[in-house]
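The freezer alarm interrupted the setup, so I double-checked each line after restarting. Inputs confirmed:
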Amino acid sequence: MTQTVRKLQLGKIGELVPRADAPPKVKGEFVYASDLIVPGMLWGHTLRSPHAHARIASIDISQAVAMPGVHAALTHDDVPGERLYGLEFQDQPVLAIDRVLYYGEPVALVAAEHPEQARRAAESIHVEYEPLEPVADMERATELSELHPDKPTHGHGYLDDPRPNVLRHIQIQHGDVDAAGDVVVTGVYEVGSQDQAFLGPESGLAVPDGEGGVDIYVATQWLHVDRAQVAPCLGLPLSAVRIHLAGVGGAFGGREDLSMQVHGAMLALHTNRPVKIVYNREESFTGHVHRHPARIWCEHRATHEGRLVNVRMKILLDGGAYASSSTAVASNAASFAIGPYESPNALIESTAVYTNNPPCGAMRGFGAVQTCFASEAQMDKLAAALDIDPVELRLLNALAPGDVLPTGQRITGSMPVAETIRAAAALEPPPEEPLPRDVLRLPGGAGNTTNGEGVRRGVGFAVGFKNIAYSEGFDDYCAARVRLLTDGSAEVHCAAAEVGQGVTGVILQVARTELDLEDVRLAPGQTATVDSAGSASASRMTWMAAGAVRDACRAALEEQTLRPGEEVDVERIYRHAATTPLDPETGQITGERAHVAFAACAMKVVAEVDVDLGLTRVVWIGAAQDVGKAVNPQQVEGQIEGGTAQGLGLALMEEIQTRDGLITNASFTDYLIPTALDMPPVESVLIEDPEPDAPYGVKGVGEPPTVVSTAAIVAALRAATGRELARVPVKPDDICLGSETETG
Amino acid sequence: MRITLRINGEEHQADCWEGESLLFALREKLGFPGAKNACEQGECGSCSVLLDGTLVCACLVLAAQADGHEVTTVEGLAEGEQLHPVQQAFVDAGAVQCGFCTPGLVVATADLLSRNTSPSDDEIREALSGNLCRCTGYAKIFDAVRRAASA
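Predicted 3D structure, all chains:
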């Protein structure tokens, strides 16, 4: 909570500069949310539902409050204000009221002197449940009883869909939706639920101010949206709730929704003591939203020459128990369903449903990951059916400025899809390594399962794209405040969350560039001293913070010329070009644009597969990414490499497994993420085609590699095995026993 | 129970409950929060420290087991403001993003290079395979290890 003000050590925009937060991080001195300690601090713990769907008959806290060291045990009765909250729709109880809708739903809270006392006291709370049949199959959700009878997401300008449990149903009707082609390829694809699996579990510290208010130090992605949800639940005005950014150990969308914020503040205000809550890994798996599992039906119609004529896709997304950002994910999945291609006709349906599965929401790629996996598999099928080179087929259909998206939006900014495809295709993978070799460089690795027999090599290719920043009429802005001090130094305030992506470096590079000044400090992020920065998500933070800091710096310099020698303190708000909602009936734009800008990425992948055992090894990945302008090339490469790794995880190993809604693998022993032995070298090419409306021409870079790498890796596995591999993560059984690719 | 141990060359004492891990004692009682708690079951390596010179996950060692022993944490590597060569290499290579895994990786890399001054790429990957990183995709971490080895 007392992070020192960071001092500038950075260069200007476009320079390769080391991160200012790297030295404290390598020394173990950087203060993460879980590192916070203050005198008199208590430990909070959350009791969670063991059921996916149940009525709560009673909750008895009497034993818990009598235990040694325990200072409070709280239930829904103790929520001081609004009992429901939500990122976009208020449909989620702070603490379960009379029912639970998912495994791990918070039911009660305890604060105690020692974390183990808190845990044991929580276990002693007696909750009488009456289990109910869970809605566990998303395909049946619209036939079963309504989980949210008040339909919290209805009446927000979406298509009215009377079926039970529909969070949002969107239809995009583009051109002649029945247009026929010379060739047709079809497929049904599935994507498992992925976890963000950031290394730093949810944590934070709530400190009562003695006057009824509270300071919350927390690892989050958006300070001001947290405050907007926390204050009403505490029954407090916004000014009495101050949220401070504590060190964040990764985010990837999983910190957009609240975790401990209200809970910690309730315990702190109740006990009048600082309260720290740190989730363990198992709790983290239930404590945040996941990537939506998806089932996607596709029919691609094309000419003999390979031009897309009509793409018809139906997308079903399991939103889980609460809305979170599912309505936006459903829309994004639809908007980017067909990939970065022009098709004169399209019919796309996307539906997100409520179930009793773990709630899903934002994760890196936000709906575009699932559809890219499906539509790129379709493009390969089409290439095979037409006997056209897959790269040529993609180039033939690649989107370019001036083209029209299925939503009717004309692309007016940067969209170098063809350049990106050509650059990735031109990358030369390393030659096949002869046998014998070290087993670490064979599928199965140190398991020593093959000396090369049964191993086949395949090369895959994929391209994908997604939007930058918020869409569909959302008032998306970022504030920055710049103080020019009389000693010649400058101080920047911006609430942009540094989640590891490097936005603090971007802010300092912009300020240094604009002010032409060495001595610039970035003040700690908090709600009290500056307006909202918006979310560190949607690949938007670099663009938005750069715009806000640039504008504030220029205004400060102008102010300084009017009042030389005096301190200057100005705040400016930056907005990107306005967007408007999609028409609820047709999914067509209602203004110039529903999305602000787009970024593409193409990848070539070499994989080796032991077809006898179904074991895989990704050998090499070549990526070309449309980045607008690389503010710090080293950090951009880091985003591409890291984003690719998360896509590799989804392709090969990562899935939240559930049985009747209960998570069965909530640990790093059972939910595997890529290790140092799983990741191949990633060769990156940065395509710099400046975005005309963005500050310095920047685009976001975090999501496109994650959108594409899953699709590209599975394409390589298909090339190696001849199997259809229509579901990720690909399992050894799918490789050994799965259906073979249809040809034609 | 009271435990006495040497941390980064200096003697420290703490009163511990028998069930507490070395990681908990280091972080919450002894003022060494550098080792991170990310999985508490020895899968992620974020809590890597040296116990009598051997690389261990501090979450899998009871505080009581460390009584009378020597512990080196990430805080013990730098000489004042002078970063350890491994730390400097992580900074220079851009191997740090969120940084939550970094203390564990720095300790694991220092341990590797103390045993093998010029590891091959395969030796690096194998040595660091017990340290999960979710941000970087490992490429710049490998680069950092190679830089540190040649420093």
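Quick read of the result. The domain at 2-76 of chain B is CATH 3.10.20.30 (Ubiquitin-like (UB roll)).
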